[in-house]
Amino acid sequence: MFVQVRNITVTEGNSEQVVQRFSKPGIIEEQEGFVGIEILVKKVRRGEEEVIVLVRWESEDYWKQWEKSDAHIATHKANRGQPKPEYILNTEVGMYELKAEKKPAQM
């Protein structure tokens, strides 16, 4: 499994806006190899909040296919030139390959 991790720092009280953006239905759910998205929120010191968005794919190849797709590129083109919301302080993105997983024992 391949996981894209977005770590988004926002001003206090604005994490819900990020949660809503990544929770609403979109074209990503229709993409081959898409597994799911999880969204985590952590309160951070200094009046900030941290939102972690985990986007899971069956493989890196499926993620690359999505990144190069006309639908994904069109979405980015539509947003080009628009300023990011002021409540977003920082965004970091990392790519990870799942190497191990533990699941509950079968009873």
Describe the structure.
With 107 residues, the protein is an alpha+beta fold. Strand 2 (34-44) and strand 3 form a beta hairpin. Strands 2-3-1-4 form a four-stranded antiparallel beta sheet. It has one domain: Alpha-Beta Plaits (2-Layer Sandwich). It has three helices and four strands. The mean pLDDT is 92. It is globular and about 45 Å long. The protein has helices spanning 15-23, 60-67, 70-79; strands at 2-11, 34-44, 48-57, 88-97.
Largest beta-sheet details:
4 strands, antiparallel
The CATH architecture:
2-Layer Sandwich
- Structural class designation: alpha+beta
Q: What strand order characterises the main sheet?
A: 2-3-1-4
Instruction: Give me the strand/helix succession.
Output: EHEEHHE
Tally of separate helices: 3
Structural Rg: 16 Å
Q: Based on CA inertia axes, which overall geometry fits?
A: globular
Mean pLDDT: 92
The CATH topology name reads: Alpha-Beta Plaits
State the helicity in percent bands.
25-40%
Quote the beta fraction. Answer: 35-45%
